[in-house]
Prior knowledge:
Layout: H1 2-9, H2 13-24, E1 37-39, E2 42-44, H3 47-67, H4 95-103, H5 118-142, E3 153-158, E4 169-174, H6 177-196, H7 213-225
Antiparallel strand pairs: 1-2, 3-4
Amino acid sequence: YYAQKIQDIGTNTKKFWQFIQSIIKKQSNHKDFPEYFMKNGQKLYEDMEIADAFCEHYTNVGKNLAQGIVEGREKSADYVQYNSPNTLFFTPATTLEIDKLITQLKNKTSHGYDNITNILLKKISPHILNPLKYIINRSFQEAKFPTKMKFALVSPLYKKDDKYQFMNYRPVSLLPILSKILEKCIFNRIYNFMEKNGIINNSQYGYRQKHSTQDASIELLKDILQ
């Protein structure tokens, strides 16, 4: 039975792990919030106080971690080999390109503060392609990211240990789906330019098309054998 189920799942990693978790009866870490949270030895009960404390905690996580990082001898620019005379130019986005990006979105029901889901965006896309193209190209021309596209709904998810401590909750940010369309347009132009001009190091395998952990493993094995 299990062998057949795994065979039916195929190469879908997400469904495979969901199936494994259903077998071992693993419970989700998501739990209801406790009636209070602890901050500096005091109990916080009011929703606004708790929300403000979460905001304060999350905005300081990066700063606190950065203070403990020892500065390295190399800079990030040291890993970039760029000798091309070409410069980056953002070609205008087209309705065909935007429509393709929207079509490729997964049918999720999650949404940002604007309540627009992927499913809804797909349904209304024929009516908003031209206005959306105008906004994206205006963003290219002025080198500005629309402020309202930066707003995110931040939801704390319980991880483990003491549920009354803010540090034991990780934040999940839900941005407006329209911001992701703009981000994808920007990403495609930068990525294609870097690939075309050989800016990305050949040993960079993460977050690249047609590259995987297998490639990194093969290179490591080759270096060891040599």
